[in-house]
Amino acid sequence: MILDGGLPSVFRRFIVGAVLVILVGCTAPVQHVDGYRDTNALIGATSRFDLNRFAGVWTVREYFPTERALTGFTVMPGAGDTFTWTETSGQPSGASGAEQSATLGTMIGQGRFTLDWDDHAYWVLWVDEGFRTAVIGTPNGRFGFIADRSPKGGADRIKAAREILDFNGYDVSQLRVLK
Questions:
Q1: How far apart, in whole angstroms, are the C-alpha atoms of residue 176 and residue 65?
Q2: In this model, does residue 23 exceed pLDDT 70?
Q3: What is the pLDDT of residue 9?
């Protein structure tokens, strides 16, 4: 049967239905991402983490901009599951004008830790076999970075680290290279 306008009634119902579906889709709530990570994406800490191998000096190579201008850090194991986290900010590690501050860190699971000065849970998402490059982030996505034992080199590991951030739901287009 053909109704006014020359369209078959079945086709007209299809068009009306499609328009309704599109309109309902437009009214669906939009997920707001507060940070650099899609919190609906799965995230996982590395099973390779070992605090004693992680100990030592690290340089931040790439980071997501935050109020903390983290440029490097040092980890020194303590008693049990604790360690000292000494953070360098403001200038690249070792440069004049850099500020350092230290706090107590506590392991809360495999590759996961907290720092006494805030309420974030930090996760070591990846570390290469030689413990030269690491990815650290927070499940809420407000903080994350790629660290390396050296301020230069290791392009293949830095690339792999970026892929890990992407896999864990981070928007890697927001990463900044520390100069």
A1: 7
A2: no
A3: 64
CA atoms within 13 A on the CB side of 31: 7
d(CA 113, CA 108): 5
The conformational region for residue 53 under phi > 0 = left, psi -120 to 50 = alpha, else beta, is alpha
User: 78 with 104: CB under 8 angstroms?
Assistant: yes
Residues in a beta bridge with 63: 145, 176
Closest alpha carbon to 158 in 63, 87, 92? 63
pTM of the model: 0.78
Q: What are phi and psi of 85, to 5 degrees?
A: -110, 115
pLDDT, position 15? 56
> Phi/psi of residue 5, each to 5°?
90, -5
34 backbone dihedrals φ, ψ, rounded to 5°: -100, 80
Q: Specify the DSSP element, H or E, that contains 159.
A: helix 155-167
Give the whole-angstrom CA distance, residue 119 versus residue 114: 7
